[in-house]
Design a protein that fits this description.
alpha/beta, nicotinate phosphoribosyltransferase, 2 domains, seven-stranded antiparallel beta sheet, six-stranded parallel beta sheet, 17 helices
Length: about 475
């Protein structure tokens, strides 16, 4: 789906434009600025998040320009002069961007993306970058939790009608697939990215017929290869399952009966699925799958499986596509450095709230892996030109409690970010959504189970290099904060 076909240039906070005019009429106009994108806390108290949304940011930046209608609108506000409007008419992004790739497991305070560009350009794209990453990272992370709770059972994203608008549905589906869902109810996502779309019937289909059996029979004759019958319109155990069994037996061949399924969308899932499994098996339909839906999330799925529910697949809607339990990701876009005549000057934001104090300077991001286990052990944020000798041990330390130290030995080191834009030209080819999804699963497999826990996960180490730590504290001392 090419978002560039839509004119979204003015999908920005108004202060991006008022600041742009201010920069334009000052010495800051051509100054190079560095902005980091990062988040401060994992949603739902989890131990990790999933990065998603990069492809849409690329499409937006490649298409970024002010139309005649945009210029006319800004002129109508009465606060923008013609010289500035003339500048906007020729506006293009000419900077550089580095980013982790979609599907990467990410952690708080890491510079998952850095934008280096003239101040006006770097500031202007802030809103779209954040809204895209905040939404897709949130949904991909939620989907990862839900699909992990399913214990390998297929999870279909069912949330189109519950999403907060068309884009939330479409891109929510994309993010959910990256996070681990196997299919969707959203047809346009199949058309756009090849995310498998599926669905069978609503309760209204059954109500349209004079009897439940007639509805089931009609459907089985229309779609004999893999019919899924919704059995809770009237009564699951007294009518739904008996009529489904009758329809399967009368309409399907023995081979087709191996790929049929029933879906339950209400009631006590654990109790009903246990009863249903016995009824289906007793009728010889041992291959018939049981699909359940109805306001599910990772906790409900985990609990019903622990209680012995007989479930083969899940349909998850509103609590996934809206990330209902915590619907804000909290990504931010902060200035970390400026560049004048080739010299980079670090910048720091200071707050009375320690979590809001930023890490200054143009930085890079690395991940340590144990050669023995293959597992990720820690991430390291460095200043951009630091070189790490992988043949030598490396001492990590907690940035807040520097006496907590760990000596890394027998490790491999991976640079997590790649260059996306170079002097305004996109130099990165986005993988297919299937490749991103596969990569995401490899990323998760490299994490210790303790990091992946739903509650009280292990605090994954994200450390600063000694040089970056010193620089940060030097700036804090200069500001009289330590």
């Amino acid at each position: 789906m090419n978002i560039g076909k839509r004119e979204l240039t003015l999908l920005c906070d108004f202060y991006e434009i008022t600041m742009a005019r201010g920069y334009f009429h000052s010495k800051i106009k051509d100054q190079i600025a560095y902005f980091d994108v990062f988040f401060r806390r994992v949603p739902d108290g989890g131990g990790y998040a999933i990065f998603a949304g990069l492809e849409q940011i690329i499409e937006y930046i490649k298409a970024l320009k002010f139309s005649d209608e945009d210029i006319a609108y800004l002129r109508s506000k009465g606060i923008f002069d013609e010289e500035f409007l003339s500048y906007l008419r020729d506006f293009r992004f000419t900077g550089d961007i580095w980013s982790v790739e979609e599907g990467t497991v990410i952690f708080p305070n890491e510079p998952i993306m850095t934008v280096r560009a003239p101040a006006i350009e770097a500031q202007f794209i802030e809103t779209f970058v954040l809204l895209t990453i905040n939404h897709q990272c949130l949904i991909a992370t939620k989907a990862s939790r839900i699909t992990r709770a399913s214990g390998g059972r297929a999870v279909s994203e069912f949330g189109a009608r519950r999403a907060h608008g068309p884009d939330a549905s479409i891109y929510g589906t994309r993010a959910a697939y990256i996070g681990g869902c196997s299919s969707t109810s959203c047809t346009i996502a199949d058309k756009s990215w090849g995310i498998p779309a599926g669905g069978t019937m609503a309760h209204s289909w059954i109500q349209m017929f004079d009897s439940e059996y007639e509805a089931f029979e009609a459907y089985c004759r229309l779609y004999p290869s893999s019919p899924t019958l919704l059995v809770d319109t009237y009564d699951v155990l007294k009518s739904g399952i008996p009529n489904a069994i009758k329809a399967f037996k009368s309409c399907l061949t023995e081979e087709q009966q191996k790929s049929c399924a029933i879906r339950i969308d209400s009631g006590d899932i654990t109790y009903l699925t246990k009863k249903v499994r016995k009824m289906l098996d007793g009728a010889g339909l041992t291959g018939c799958k049981i699909v359940v839906s109805n306001s599910l999330d990772e906790y409900i799925i985990r609990d019903i499986l622990t209680q012995g529910a007989c479930v083969d697949a899940f349909g998850v809607g509103e609590r996934l596509v809206t990330a209902r339990s915590e619907p804000v990701f909290g990504g931010v876009y902060k200035l970390v450095a400026v560049e004048r005549e080739g010299k980079i000057t670090p910048k720091i934001k200071i707050s009375e709230n320690p979590i809001k104090i930023t890490n200054p300077d143009f930085k890079d991001l690395y991940r340590f892996y144990s050669k023995e286990s293959g597992k990720a052990e820690a991430d390291l944020i460095t200043i951009y030109d630091e070189v790490i000798d992988e043949s030598a041990p490396y001492e990590l330390f907690d940035p807040a409690h520097i006496w907590k130290r760990k000596l890394m030995e027998n490790y491999t080191l991976r640079r997590l970010r790649v260059k996306i834009f170079d002097n305004g030209k996109c130099v990165y080819t986005s993988p297919s959504v299937d490749k991103i999804r596969e990569y995401c699963q490899r990323e998760l497999s490299s994490m210790w189970d303790e990091v992946l826990r739903f509650e009280n996960p292990h605090n994954y180490y994200v450390d600063l290099s000694a040089r970056l730590w010193d620089e940060k504290h030097t700036l804090l001392r200069k500001k009289g904060k330590i």
